[in-house]
Amino acid sequence: MAGSIFHRKRRKLKSEINVVPYIDVMLVLLIIFMVTAPLLTLSVDVKLPSSSAKAVETRNEPIIVIAYPDGRFGLKLPEAKQPEVLDAAGLEAKVAAIRGEQGNELRIMVAAEGSAPYQKVLDAMDVLRRAKVSNVSLMTNAGGNAR
């Protein structure tokens, strides 16, 4: 027996990837995404803040541009009691004429009705930019503890 040789049978190595753990992870992720997807919302309700800051004291009254919900604009001059209703081209021409008279001291405040979308305010500011007005402010109602 001293001369007998034991040969072990060698196994051939597999060169395949075991994908079972990857499938398990994929199924767990699928379940997580299926549970969380209905909880996500696509829109966010935004409530714009109100200010409690004091009003700015000025020497002269500013010109007020009002943005209406239907796309029209109002121009309220300091000496006028009611705003004049204009379209965008009329507002631009009138403000450009006033800017020519007053120069860089022209102050304009943009206001909007409560039901007007913010896009109308941006449209009014765009008209003022085309009229080359640089001193533009947003007008708000005093709220909170403003004095």
Automatic annotation (TrEMBL):
User: Know the name of this protein?
Assistant: Tol-Pal system protein TolR
Q: Which domain of life is it from?
A: Bacteria
Q: To which species is this protein native? A: Pseudoxanthomonas mexicana
Q: Which PANTHER family match?
A: EXBD MEMBRANE COMPONENT OF PMF-DRIVEN MACROMOLECULE IMPORT SYSTEM (PTHR30558), TOL-PAL SYSTEM PROTEIN TOLR (PTHR30558:SF7)
Function according to Swiss-Prot or TrEMBL? Part of the Tol-Pal system, which plays a role in outer membrane invagination during cell division and is important for maintaining outer membrane integrity.
Membrane topology of the entry: Single-pass membrane protein
Quaternary structure, from the entry: The Tol-Pal system is composed of five core proteins: the inner membrane proteins TolA, TolQ and TolR, the periplasmic protein TolB and the outer membrane protein Pal. They form a network linking the inner and outer membranes and the peptidoglycan layer.
Respond yes or no to whether keyword Cell inner membrane is given for this record: yes
Q: Which InterPro entries match?
A: ExbD (IPR003400), Tol-Pal_TolR (IPR014168)
